[in-house]
């Protein structure tokens, strides 16, 4: 079993990782005679950019129990040039955003189940922040897998990507990108739900079972993916490109409605043939 999020240590590791990825040349910093011993910016350079003391940055990166204010976090986010999702992740780790209310959803509201069904012929499914699949329509089960035949614990889109034989080997044309984006999204959910032991255990299982997942998780990329394209090698109809759109119900913000649409006429034809059965 893995512990839930140790926010102090994760905040320290995240700040170090983001500092080390920066290129000093992008900041117009003067060249030094001696080569830098570590990649990225130095701590004193980040401190100067953020308007805080070097000692403060050192203590943050050492996980020494500091609770930075929202103003300091904003300054650090600017100094480290964090993307919006990374900034939100930083604020979550520093516990400067309100925590999620109530227990994570493990079942879908009947109204959302009906909505998923009514979206046909568009493939649609409802997931929670763990990627547990809570509801789906016939079209989505034809595109991905027959969810009814899976044990409930395996009805998880990340689990399927990593471990389901059909989806693990060759189903996605660019599996590395799909996996990397999914992990970046999952890391944001992990920080937003620091007390979710089920999620922590699931991530620990993925790390132990898949070296690629473990490597990407350790890179600490953070990005919430609301829209994108996936190219599939479907075993029944061949190559098919779909665009996905992710919507969040206001009444159930822990859940996400995922909708697929064909990208081009050839993909639409393949999708029509597939879902006609």
Overview in brief:
The protein has 13 helices and five strands. It has helices at 7-20, 43-50, 54-61, 70-79, 84-93, 110-118, 138-143, 157-163, 165-168, 175-192, 197-209, 211-218, 265-275; strands at residues 124-128, 133-136, 227-234, 238-247, 255-262.
Task: Please supply descriptive tags for the structure shown above.
277 residues, alpha+beta, 434 Repressor (Amino-terminal Domain), Beta-Lactamase, 2 domains, 5-stranded antiparallel beta sheet, 13% strand
Blueprint (SSEs and pairs):
Elements: H1 7-20, H2 43-50, H3 54-61, H4 70-79, H5 84-93, H6 110-118, E1 124-128, E2 133-136, H7 138-143, H8 157-163, H9 165-168, H10 175-192, H11 197-209, H12 211-218, E3 227-234, E4 238-247, E5 255-262, H13 265-275
Antiparallel strand pairs: 1-2, 1-5, 3-4, 4-5
Description:
- InterPro entries: Cro/C1-type_HTH, Lambda_DNA-bd_dom_sf, MLTR_LBD.
- This is Helix-turn-helix transcriptional regulator.
- Residues 40-87 form the HTH cro/C1-type domain.
- It holds the Pfam family MLTR_LBD.
- With 277 residues, the chain is of the alpha+beta class.
- It folds into 2 domains: 7-93, lambda repressor-like DNA-binding domains (434 Repressor (Amino-terminal Domain)); 110-275, Beta-Lactamase, CATH 3.30.450.180.
- The protein contains 13 helices and 5 strands.
- It has helices at 7-20, 43-50, 54-61, 70-79, 84-93, 110-118, 138-143, 157-163, 165-168, 175-192, 197-209, 211-218, 265-275; strands at residues 124-128, 133-136, 227-234, 238-247, 255-262.
- A hairpin with a 4-residue loop joins strand 1 (124-128) and strand 2.
- The model has no long low-confidence stretch (mean pLDDT 89).
